[in-house]
Design goal:
single chain, mainly alpha, 3-stranded mixed β-sheet, 17 helices, 3 strands
Length: 346
Amino acid sequence: MDTRDQQAYTINTLRKELMPYARPDRKRAIVQLLNTMLPYALLWGVLIYMLKNDYPLWAVVFLMFLASLFLLRIFIFFHDCAHGCFFESQKANTILGYITGVLTFTPFRYWQKNHLIHHGTYADLDRRGIGDIWTLTVEEYLKASRWKKLGYRLYRNPLVFLLLGPGYIFLIAQRFMHRWEDKDVRHSGAYTNLAIALILLVSHYTIGLKTYLQIQIPVMLIAGALGVWLFYVQHQFEGVYWARHDEWDPLKAALYGSSYYKLPKILQWFTGNIGLHHIHHVLPRIPNYYLQKCYDEVPFLQKVKPLTIRKSLKSLWLNLWDEKHQKLVSFRELKKYYGSFGEQKR
């Protein structure tokens, strides 16, 4: 991006320019609900029928994957509700937030609280730890204990955070609220758990608990893995911006600390335009259904270099923030000068 172009903007002037796109449209929102919720419910009906009648495994798995894409899209609606921008009515956003929270096994107020903190702290090296991916600097890693290094390497392993992580987060961790959480947050967790328990009970007396779990768990795990990957690559990519709090620039954080993940149109639809993440971080109150329109009509936003699927795969191996060179580096790069666990070679 041309520095002269950037100097013409501050985060506030850019947000002011984008404000016309931050007006929810009830008709668009309802259309999105219909074109997502109805196919998702239909897929559930077909999957129940197929499991009851011993259809081939490949056909069942294919429809489960398709259902997981719709569940991922439902999570985007949940995300918009957390920002209060899917509907104009905040009451409607809250109600839909709780409903989609049950469908995605995510307590609405709990997730909303952590996610809003993330929006105020992302790309800030001095304010890491809530609602983000655990990221250490090279110096922090080298000074860490051997056990902490091992834990960090396991955490950053793709097999862990894409396969084991989603199951732990959505099926287990989010069932428990800590005592120090706000009452509203704890109630959100309790209501979500109660609704899930009710679904389990109804399933037991209708389609059978086994059938329900045979569908819900795989669909949830696939959607969870896709969602975690999207969240990961939105702030962990080659060329990403990070800074210490005193030097943290909100405009640079939005434009360079968040990716423009350019996906094929069909995947962009299923992911609710969330790949236009740099726009979302400039002005979080823009509904998902206006992000592409905003990008198309504001030339300044088009100057951000897109991240393709192929280029994004490199993010899997970018593990540590190198403050000296201002970039993410891999464990392999670090190993050139240090041992596997950061013990300097002689």
